[in-house]
Design goal:
The complex is a heterodimer. Chain A has no helices and twelve strands. Chain A is mainly β. The relative contact order of chain A is 0.32. Helix content of chain B is about 0%, strand content about 60%. In chain B, strands 2, 4, 5, 6, 9, 10 and 11 form a seven-stranded mixed β-sheet that branches. In chain B, strands 1-3-8-7 form a four-stranded antiparallel β-sheet, with no helix packed on it. Chain B starts with a strand and ends with a strand. Classes of the chains: A mainly beta, B mainly beta. Chains A and B meet through strand 6, strand 10 and strand 11 of A and strand 5, strand 9 and strand 10 of B.
Chain lengths: ~120, ~110
């Protein structure tokens, strides 16, 4: 069965510093991968997604992620964080176990704290 | 924002009572999903639907049932609510190569 691991439960970064959030997946075939962000008390917003092709994916709000098949990773990066980036970040992989669209499997999330 | 609404947005109920949560979409999308979100667990799939009257179980389906009689509505029912079902419930639409969009969530407290 597919799974997603986000090794870091909490990360603290100074405003203006670079950011990397880690995500490792387990999936037999080529995965469909996603990063979502959730601000406190809000729903989930898609940051970016990877289906195929270029392994470096650009998203919204200045985020990017790189798919590395050899490492089963899909890490999220941002060169310079802003206080408004403080939120919960979720990595997810599409299930597709039965063909068709049968939902996402999420990691447990990484809570990002921005220090002034 | 994708046209997804959830009702109610907040609900407090007692153990043993039935509860129905509603998800309504205006995007005419074929696929719809129910997830629950709990601290330390991320989001977990409860049930999903790939068309009217076509539904299937997700990873945490015990104690939940769903129905989809119209494309736009996907109902999640807790037949007899338990305290372990206290959670935030999210509906989503999309899937396949389409992005999944999430609704605003329903916070359910079972006392």
């Amino acid at each position: 069965a597919q799974s997603v691991t986000q090794p870091d439960i909490h990360i603290t970064v100074s405003e203006g510093a670079s950011l990397e959030l880690r995500c490792n997946y387990s999936y037999g075939a080529t995965p469909y991968l996603f990063w979502y962000v959730q601000s406190p008390g809000q729903g989930l917003q898609l940051l970016l997604k990877y289906f195929s092709g270029d392994t470096l994916v650009q998203g919204i709000k200045g985020f990017e992620a790189e798919f590395k098949r050899s490492q089963s990773s899909f890490n999220l990066r941002k060169p310079s964080v802003h206080w408004s980036d403080a939120a919960e970040y979720f990595c997810a992989v599409a299930r597709y176990s039965g063909g068709g669209a049968d939902g996402l499997t999420f990691g447990k999330g990484t809570h990002l704290i921005i220090q002034p | 924002d994708a046209g997804i609404t959830q009702s109610p947005r907040h609900k407090v109920t007692e153990t043993g009572t039935p509860v129905t949560l509603r998800c309504h979409q205006t995007e005419n999308h074929r696929y719809m999903y129910w997830y629950r979100q709990d601290p330390g667990h991320g989001l977990r799939l409860i049930h999903y639907s790939y068309g009217v009257k076509d539904t299937d179980k997700g990873e945490v389906s015990d104690g939940y049932s769903v129905s989809r009689s119209k494309t736009e509505d996907f109902l999640l029912t807790l037949e007899s609510a338990t305290s372990s079902q206290t959670s935030v419930y999210f509906c989503a639409i999309g899937g396949g190569r389409d992005t999944q969009y999430f609704g605003p969530g329903t916070r359910l407290t079972v006392l």
